[in-house]
Design brief:
Radius of gyration: 19 Å
CATH architecture of the largest domain: Alpha-Beta Complex
Number of domains: 2
CATH topology of the largest domain: UDP-galactose 4-epimerase, domain 1
Largest sheet: 4 strands, parallel
Shape: globular
Helix content: 40-55%
Structural class: alpha/beta
Number of strands: 10
């Protein structure tokens, strides 16, 4: 589903059926939902192109989607959100509120909560990549010591694709997903450097560097939009580690180790840049 189907020709060429629809325009959704059995919700209004409060926009969009799905006879919604304590971050709080809005009509919701996604298109990964690429040494805030369990983008896609096949008794639940390796955000910087064939940057910790200052610093050094960087950095102050692995045990997925996922993400991003 796309607001402007003409901009999705690359997907059409790969065999996707493109339908016109806008989650902020309820009238556009019934035709897009027609004949749909499982609906995936991967929408986020934070950052580039967003107007107003992204939390309010996300709630409205998810509610419209849920109501249209219910009316169309959709059997199940699959949603990808973020792992971590939502009380510490506007970004994570919005992800949780989106899940609640999608559940508002009573449809079963398979809610996948992922840690940092390692892939060329991931804003979190791009932030780390460009910091490492452009700074041989850096002053780093306390959040670089926080634990995380990053997951490769291909693995995330595998979980999403397999979610539609979950038994009905397993479909309406929250599933935490992460990769096989637990590290820190500073450790991710070192892994990115290794994947780039570089020496890991020298890091000097400064505990008083706030999320606001960090986001402006990231905005100056990387191409990541400051409007995206600040809520992302706020979310980095909490551990993003899988506490309940029982959901992942429902899937037969061979996970990708962090080193392999990092190399693939670096190749993807550098290929896109070229």
């Amino acid at each position: 589903m796309a607001r402007s189907p003409e901009k999705a020709n690359d997907l059409k060429e790969k065999g996707c059926e493109i339908v016109k629809g806008d989650v902020l325009d309820p009238a556009s959704l019934p035709p897009a939902m027609e004949g749909v059995d499982v609906a995936y919700y991967l929408v986020h209004s934070m950052g580039r192109g967003a107007t107003g409060d992204f939390e309010e926009t996300d709630r409205e969009a998810a509610t419209n989607f849920a109501e249209a799905a219910k009316d169309a006879g959709v059997r199940r919604i699959v949603y990808l959100g973020g792992l971590g304590d939502e009380s510490t971050s506007k970004h994570l709080r919005s992800r949780q509120e989106t899940a609640e809005a999608l559940q508002s009509t009573g449809l079963p919701l398979t809610y996948l909560r992922a840690a940092v996604v390692v892939g060329g298109g991931s804003e979190s990964f791009q932030t780390i990549y460009y910091l490492v690429r452009r700074l041989p040494a850096m002053v780093t805030p306390k959040w670089t010591t926080i634990k995380t369990q990053p997951i490769g983008s291909d693995d995330v896609v595998s979980y999403l694709a397999s979610a539609k096949d979950l038994a009905d008794e397993d479909a309406d639940r929250t599933i935490e997903i992460g990769g096989p390796d637990v590290t820190t955000y500073g450790g991710m910087m070192d892994e990115v450097a290794k994947a780039m064939g570089r020496r890991p940057p020298l890091r000097v910790a400064v505990p008083l560097l706030s999320p606001s200052l960090s986001s402006h610093w990231i905005g100056l050094v990387t191409p990541v939009d400051t409007g995206v960087a600040r809520p992302l950095v706020e979310g980095l102050s909490t551990e993003t580690v899988v506490r309940d692995p029982s959901g992942m045990e429902l899937f037969d997925i061979e996970q990708t180790d962090l080193e392999t996922a990092m190399k693939a993400a670096v190749r993807e991003l550098e290929s896109a840049r070229d």
